[in-house]
Amino acid sequence: MSSLTILAILLLVGIAAFFIGRTRSIQVCGGKQQTLHSRPAYYGYYLAILTALPAILVLAIWSVAERPVSNYLAMRELPVKVLEGSNAQRSLTMGVVDSIATGLPKLSADEYEVVRKARLGFVTTSDARDILSKHGVVLGSDPEPTLIASAQKLASARGQSRFFLLITCFLVAAAGFAWGYRRIHPRLRSRNIVERVMRGGLFAASTVAVLTTVGIVLSVLFETIHFFQFVSPMDYFFGTVWDPRFATVGKAEGQFGLLPLLWGTMFISAVALMVAVPVGLFAAVYMSEYAGSKVRALAKPVLEILAGIPTIVYGLFALSVFGPMLRDLGFNVGLDISASSVLTAGIVMGVMIIPFVSSLSDDIINAVPQSLREASYGLGATQSETIKRVILPAALPGIVGAVLLAASRAIGETMIVVLAAGIAANLTVNPLEPVTTITVKIVSQLTGDLEFNSPQTLVAFALGLTLFVITLALNVYALYIVRRYREQYE
C-alpha cells in the first residue's frame, strides 16, 4: 500500500474521529452544552488531531527513512567491485536494481520462479530480462545474477516496510483515539489545545520556508567557496573576458570575468525598464484616475494577461517576429541592427514586465487618501495638476518600490535573453549588438558533460550567488521605500 493511500485512510479516520469526539462531548455533558469549556466542535477537532496527527508524523518519518535503509540492505548483495567503485557507478547500478525491483511484484508465481532461477544460474539471465520487459521494466542488457539478488532484497525490504508501516500507523492512530476519547469531559480545555496545535503548525510551516531559503543560500555559498579555490576572486569580479574554456593545456585555468555578464544583465534590464516604466505608469494613472468603471474592469485584466504569458512565448515572438522586424527596419534606414540584440530583448522583456509596474502602481495610486484629491480640487487645481503635483508625489515611494520589484523580475529573466539577445558575452554600449546575461550562462555552464567539481561548472554557483545578492538588495531597498511611504502617509 502506497504512502498516499495510507495518508488518505488516516485523513478519513481523522474525519470520523471528529464527529465521534463532537458527539462524545455532548454525551458527557448530558446535552447541556453550556457546561462545556469549549464548543462541541473543538472536542471533535481535539480527538481528530490525537487520532490522525501522530500517525501522519510516523508516516512522514518512516517514508523518509525507508528508501535509504532499503537501498543499504540491497547494496549488501552487490559485488565488492561495485561497492568500492565511484559514486556514479553505484548510482547507475542502484538505478538498474530499482528498475528490476519495481517490476518484481508484478510477476506471477511462475515468472518469479524463472527470475529466481536466473539469480541462481539455473536459467539464462536473458530469460529473466524478457519476463521483466513484459511488465514494463526496460533494461539495456541482460541483468547479472547479483543485480537480480539485490533487486529481490530491495523488493522484499520494501514489502516488509510497507506492511509494518501500515500496522504501526493504525496502532498509533488507535492509541491516540482511545486516549483522547477517554479524556473528553466538560472541563477539558479542548479549544486551548487545538489552538496551540494550530499555532505549532503555522510555526512549523514558516520554519520550513525559512530553512528552505537558508539551505538554498548555504548550498550555493559552499559551492561558490569551492569555485574560488580554483579561480581568484579578483579575476572573477574584475575580469573583462568571459571564456570558461581552459586557457592553456595542462592548467585548470579559464577566463571567468563577471563584468561582461553583469553589464549585459544591467543593460538589457535598463532597456526593459525604459519601456515598462512609462507605459506601465501611464496605464496605471489612466486606469485609476480617468477610466470609467466599465473600462477599468475590462482594461486591467487584459493588461495583466501579459504577466500570465509564458516567457518562452515572448522569446519565440522576439526570435521569429520582432527581431527580424527590427533588423529589416534598421536596414531600411541604414542601421546595422542584429536580430539578436540588446534592443530586441529589452523591448520584449519590457512588454512582459508592464503588468508588474501598472498593477502595483495602480494599487498604490488608489491607496492615496481621497482627502488629498479633494483638498487639491478645493484649492482650484485641475485633475491633471492634482495628479502631477499631489497624487504622484504622494505615491512616488510606492511607485519606486514597484519599479524595483519589476527590475528584479527583469534581472532574473532567462528565456527571452537566450532567444532574443544571444549568448555572446560582450562589453558594448551599442544596444544594436548582441550580449548575454548571468542567468543564461548559469544554464549553459550546467549543461553538458563537465565534471561537477570543475571550475567550468562551479562558476554557475558563483554566478547564482551574485545574482541572488543583486536581486536581494533590490527587494530589500524596495521594501524599505514602501515602509517609509507608509510611515509618512498613514
Compact summary:
With 490 residues, this protein is mainly alpha-helical. It has helices spanning 3-28, 40-75, 80-83, 87-103, 109-120, 125-134, 145-183, 190-227, 233-238, 259-290, 293-308, 311-333, 342-366, 370-378, 383-411, 415-420, 438-445, 455-489; strands spanning 242-246, 254-256. The chain contains 18 helices and two strands.
Q: How much of the sequence is in beta strands?
A: under 5%
State the end-to-end CA separation. 57 Å
How large is the radius of gyration?
32 Å
Task: Tell how many strands the DSSP assignment holds.
Answer: 2
Shape: flat
Summarize the amount of helix as a percent range: over 70%
Q: List low-pLDDT spans.
A: 247-252
Can you identify the CATH superfamily of the largest domain?
A: MetI-like
Description:
The protein has 490 residues and is mainly alpha-helical. The protein has two domains: 3-188, no CATH class; 254-489, MetI-like (MetI-like fold, Orthogonal Bundle), CATH 1.10.3720.10. Helix content is 76%, strand content 2%. It is built from 18 helices and two strands. It has helices spanning 3-28, 40-75, 80-83, 87-103, 109-120, 125-134, 145-183, 190-227, 233-238, 259-290, 293-308, 311-333, 342-366, 370-378, 383-411, 415-420, 438-445, 455-489, and strands spanning 242-246, 254-256. A two-stranded antiparallel ribbon has the order 1-2. A hairpin with a 7-residue loop joins strand 1 (242-246) and strand 2 (254-256). The longest helix has 39 residues, at 145-183. It starts with a helix and ends with a helix.
